[in-house]
Structures are given as C-alpha cells and as structure tokens.
Design brief:
Order of helices and strands: HH
Shape: elongated
Oligomer: single chain
Strand content: under 5%
Helix content: over 70%
Number of helices: 2
Largest sheet: none
Number of strands: 0
Radius of gyration: 19 Å
Distance between the termini: 33 Å
Mean pLDDT: 85
Low-confidence stretches: none
Length: about 80
C-alpha cells in the first residue's frame, strides 16, 4: 500500500514542474510558461481563500469557545 500522505499535492507538483521547466530553459521564459504560472497563481489564491474561510468559519469560533471555557485548543495561525 502506498503512503498517500507522503505525496505532494497536485498544485505543488505542478508548481515544482513549472519551476523546473523555467530553470532548465533559462531566459527568456516562454509565454506559455508565464500563462501557466498565472493559472497556478489563480489556483493558489482560490485555495488560500478556502483556507481563510475555514479559519474564520470553523477554527476561529472553536478556538473562541475553547478560550472562553479554558480548554486547550489548536491555534489557527
């Protein structure tokens, strides 16, 4: 059985591949590569927004409740 937790995420793998392409080809960077980088930045922003929503909608309220009750809790930062 393979260890799925050890696999890098699809986004991380794509960013790593793109950076390898840039390193291997050197300057100037191809327009297609820059377009792909823009796409990946957009994907990253969407994931960052999801993380922030989870932080504000779930982790923050749980931590506030835990602080009010004196219960040890997980920091969200």
């Amino acid at each position: 059985m393979e260890d799925e937790d050890a696999w890098e995420t699809m986004l991380a793998g794509q960013v790593r591949f793109l950076l390898d392409v840039i390193d291997d080809t050197g300057a100037p960077v191809a327009e297609g590569t820059l377009l792909r980088l823009t796409d990946l930045k957009s994907d990253w922003a969407a994931l960052e927004a999801q993380k922030e929503k989870i932080q504000s909608d779930f982790i923050g309220p749980i931590n506030a409740w835990a602080r009010d009750k004196g219960v040890p809790h997980v920091r969200g930062e």
